[in-house]
Amino acid sequence: MFQSRQQIKYFFIMKKILFPVILVALGTGSAFATMLAKKSTRALEPAYRIVSLGGGQFQCEDADQECSNIVSGDVCEWALDTSVELHRIGSGTMCGTPLYKIP
């Protein structure tokens, strides 16, 4: 396998120095790729709140806030009143499905 002591020395130097450098570079690259992938999966939408007009009628009003349409455990809440859940716009003045907190 090795023909001289020079080759043996070279092999151990490569093993001790170059391999860890390559592993660190691969790990750093993977971390950046993961971060970019997470950012690209975010889908932000303008959020709307349901407002009662009285007489059993409701209207969807802009909440001046953005939320995620990616389903998670936490429903997006209005910043001015955390008891109000936010939705995406539906058809006309109707609100659609709920939106979720931005991860």
Instruction: For the record, give the distance between the C-alpha atoms at the N and C termini, rounded to a whole number.
Output: 53 Å
Arrangement of strands in the largest sheet: 1-2
In terms of DSSP E residues, the strand content is 25-35%
Main pleated sheet: 2 strands, antiparallel
**Unreliably modeled segments:** none
What global shape is seen? rod-shaped
The rounded Rg comes to 27 Å
**DSSP E strands, number:** 4
User: In sequence order, what are the helices and strands, one letter per element?
Assistant: HEEEE
Mean residue pLDDT: 83
Helical amount: 25-40%
| Alpha-beta classification | alpha+beta
H/I helix tally = 1
Question: What keywords describe this structure?
Answer:
single chain; 103 residues; alpha+beta; two-stranded antiparallel sheet; two-stranded antiparallel ribbon; 1 helix; 4 strands; 29% strand
